Amino acid sequence: MSSLTPESSPELAKRSWFGNFISLEKDEQIFVLIRDKPLSSIKADIVHAFLSIPSLSHSVVSQNSFRAEYKSSGGPSVFQKPVKFQVRLVFEILVKEMGLYSVTFTLLTGPSRRFKRVVETIQAQLLSTHDQPSVQALAAPPPPPFLP
């Protein structure tokens, strides 16, 4: 007769009562695709977005990678778990002629819902700077030549 242990039966694993309300999924990823914009401009927009969000700190991990941590400023900090995530910039080789970059946000630790809200804020800033007329003008076809 075998005895059931938390290792042999996932149903017996000890769970936090609050775990049902707070999703703590790890390795959750959100992708943002940006086309026809130089890498330096995308990096600058990401850093600008980081700096514009209160309670968010970031560090540069490598040339195309950042780590960020968001600590909520409202409510008692005892119950607020910080959101830690990584941001990676990748040039998509398959569509190199289009100049397509993939910005990948990966949740490392923290509540999934808060991670999604922070990334939505960053994404809105990235896409709003991408829609500026100067950027659109770079992507627009050149005007027809003037013939006398």
TrEMBL record:
* A Pfam family it matches: KA1_BRSK
Task: List the protein's name.
Answer: Serine/threonine-protein kinase BRSK2
